[in-house]
Amino acid sequence: MLDFEPEAAAAWSNTISEPNQRVEQLNRAILSWSASQPQQALQWVQEAELEADLRNALANQIGAD
After folding, report:
1. CA distances for 51 relative to 1, 6, 35, 45, 54, angstroms
2. Which residues contact residue 54 at a Cβ distance below 8 angstroms, ignoring those fewer than 6 apart?
3. Do the domain assignments include residue 1?
4. Has residue 31 been placed in a domain?
5. Total of domains in the chain
6. Which of 16, 20, 41, 46 is the most exposed place for a label (fewest CB within 10 A)?
7. Residue 11 falls within a domain, yes or no?
8. Chain-wide mean pLDDT for the chain?
9. What pLDDT, in 10s, does the model give residues 30-55?
10. Domain range spanning residue 39?
11. What is the structure's pLDDT at 5?
């Protein structure tokens, strides 16, 4: 799913109830997505319902300031 539908993978990852697994899967999805579509990945991170510290960490992973 990561290679074909990165937005769906990120959205699915965000529904995982176990916190550590959720963060791990979000990191993987965003890292994969941002390799080919960094602007779209960053926009998703900025608009998704995420905790502020997680949003900042994911944005930093993409390379946003």
Report:
1. 24, 20, 23, 10, 5
2. 23, 26
3. no
4. yes
5. 1
6. 20
7. yes
8. 91
9. 999 999 999 999 999 999 999 999 99
10. 6-62
11. 86
